[in-house]
Amino acid sequence: MIAHLWTEMRPAQWAKNLAVFAPLLFAQQLFIPDAFVRALFAFVLFCGVSSAVYLLNDVLDYEQDRTHPGKRHRPLAAGHLSRGTVLGASGTLLVFVFAGALLLGGGVLVIVVGYWLLNLIYSLWLKHQVILDVFAIAAGFVLRVVGGAVAVAVEISHWLLMCTTLLALFLGFCKRRHELLSFGMDGDHHRQVLAEYNLRFLDMMIGIVTAATVMSYALYTVSEETVRKFQTEGLLATLPFVLYGIFRYLYLVYHKELGGDPTQQMLTDIPLLLNLGLWVLTVGIVLYWR
Predict the structure, then answer these.
(1) What separation in angstroms does the CA of 282 have from each of 18, 145, 245, 276?
(2) What pLDDT, on the 0 to 100 scale, is given for residue 186?
(3) Spacing of C-alpha 102 from chain mean position
(4) Residue 222's CB: how many other CB atoms inside 10 A?
(5) Quick one: which of 38, 103, 222, 231 has the fewest CB in 10 Å?
(6) Core vs surface per residue 239-252: b (16+ CB within 10 A) or e
(7) What is the model's pLDDT at position 261?
(8) Three-state secondary structure call for residue 90
């Protein structure tokens, strides 16, 4: 049962929670032990609360998941776990997560609780509302970043929030496009909101957020605020990695017809993974090597 619960918690998706380290990185505190430990603890908390959300969502979507071509293999949908067991595990996780968040301060607790409430509302209502469903996903990423900043008590840049929002919208609309293509005419049976989308509309949204993401990051690297804060214009050297990452992901979405699971694409596509590593390395050199 433990193994099935572990699978149901979807640990592979925990990679999304690495966003909590972004404020630490850009605050130039990555190598300060106390700050790093607090950020790491915040990462663990978001892993816990996100898994609690996955468990609850699977209980709520039990009937739909049983007929879904991919989700029917999850332990709960496949009959290896009972809904009571999964719901109990979700509640237990929440107790530990909320208690742990309190150790980092009331601010972190508010953000973690807010993240859980956002996902609860998403599961019950927002995921059925066109456009708002993707905005809710983006808000989840923003809360991760804000949570990381509050945990280590650093000021968060509005540029970081903007870029995070736009990148999450980009990934969200790409995900909806893949689902629409994968499920075809039966899409609304597996995800109700797909009935409100079509490829032309999604391609327009992807085009808009792609351009906005690239321009926002480019402007961030050369903004007066950024240059004054870091005393360098070197962040402009990281722009090619952002451009390649966006273009590579678009290639996977449009040419390979992938994009249904952004985390899987990030972790399994070698060029994307290498590009991400080079981006982090370059940012690190620019911000920390004096």
Answers:
(1) 18, 20, 14, 10
(2) 59
(3) 23
(4) 12
(5) 231
(6) bebbebbbeebbeb
(7) 86
(8) helix
* 153: exposed, middle or buried (Cβ count in 10 Å: 0-12, 13-18, 19+): middle
Q: What is the DSSP string of 232-268?
A: -SGGGGGHHHHHHHHHHHHHHHHTS---S-HHHHHHH
Tokens, residue 54: 């996955």
Are 216 and 166 in contact, with CB atoms under 8 Å apart?
yes
Q: Residue-wise over 169-195: b if at least 16 C-beta within 10 A, else e?
A: bbbbbbbbbbbbebbeeebeebbebbe
Q: What is the pLDDT of residue 91?
A: 95
Sign of CA dihedral 133, 137, 140, 141: negative
Mean pLDDT by 10 residues, the chain (290 residues): 88 94 95 96 97 92 78 82 91 96 95 96 93 96 97 92 96 94 66 90 97 96 93 95 97 89 90 96 91
Count of residues in the chain: 290
Dist. CA 180–CA 185, nearest whole Å: 8
CATH number of 1-156: 1.10.357.140
Q: Which amino acid is at 126?
A: L
Q: Report pLDDT for 20.
A: 97
What pLDDT does 189 receive? 59
Q: How far is CA 81 from the centre of its chain?
A: 27
Q: Please, are residues 179 and 201 in contact by the beta-carbon 8 Å criterion? A: no
CA distance 192 to 188: 4
Cα gap 72→66, rounded to integer Å: 5
